[in-house]
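Hi Y.,

Following your request, here is the sequence exactly as I used it, all 328 residues.
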Amino acid sequence: MEKKIKELEGKIKGYREKVLKVKEEINKVIVGNEALIEKFLACMLSRGHVLLEGVPGLAKTLLGKTIAASMSLSFSRIQFTPDLLPADITGTLVFDPRGMNFVVKKGPVFANFVLADEINRAPAKVQSALLEAMQELQVTIGDNTYRLEKPFFVIATQNPIEQEGTYPLPEAQIDRFMAKLLVSYPEKDEEVEILKRMGGKEEPSVRPVIQKDEILEAQDLIREIHIDKRLLKYITDIVDATRRPEKYGIKIKEYIMYGASPRGSLYLSLVAKAKAFLDGRGYVIPDDIKWMARDVLRHRIILSYEAEAEEVNQDQLIASILSSVKIP
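Below is the corresponding structure, written out as tokens. Let me know if you'd prefer a different format.
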């Protein structure tokens, strides 16, 4: 096993350098948010979609556009509005008078990188137009189903403070996002740097530094990273503790209405492998699992009325779980 891991680490080295160059390009435009960028790259390498949440003006859209620009991928942006229709995302059949037949007009979802901007501004039926694409990598238009080109990523942004004119994401859809990343305010010195970069004559730009094939190969390599069966049990213990916390001696049962689904366990194992890849390792350690546990689980835990009344949030509950579940 040790020999196999060493060989894998040799393969990882070249692809890891490419991914780190992507990070360098992003840092030319985005100031700070180092951990956020690394977590996004981990999700991308794990073939997962990302939900970005933060107040307006924190460069959520710019982050998505910059990451896409640093890769040789097709990109589309969908601005979600209350009057948007599902066909505006997936595409529709259009009558061609010359041929007297219907032809397919594909929507913006047919791209490698789809930015769903302010996704919570559109009704549930529009949000759900992404469901099939996100889960099955395919879109049905009329009687025909069309495969999406790999790699395929959806990055959605939403504003947590504005409630008027917004629609909460359905649970079935929010569970399709590998991680929910929170975008916070920059530090004071970082904000000064933002003013310098964005207030000049020319705004910073990025160049593509990784090819489509290299991304696909890196994704395949991550699946080969070794994770010990004891760590797999550790992952399932963490997720199970969101459903049955009393089993692990954690007194938070009254705050949780529903715990995380098995998809949470799967995604947690994949991002742990991606973290090992980013660190140049061919094996997973416990810290890799804890690194993104909050991001993978926070949108999968449904709070009870007691939690809302006492202002207890998901991150606090996950912190209690991580500090209580025994590390192998």
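The longest strand covers residues 91-96.

Thanks again,
Q.
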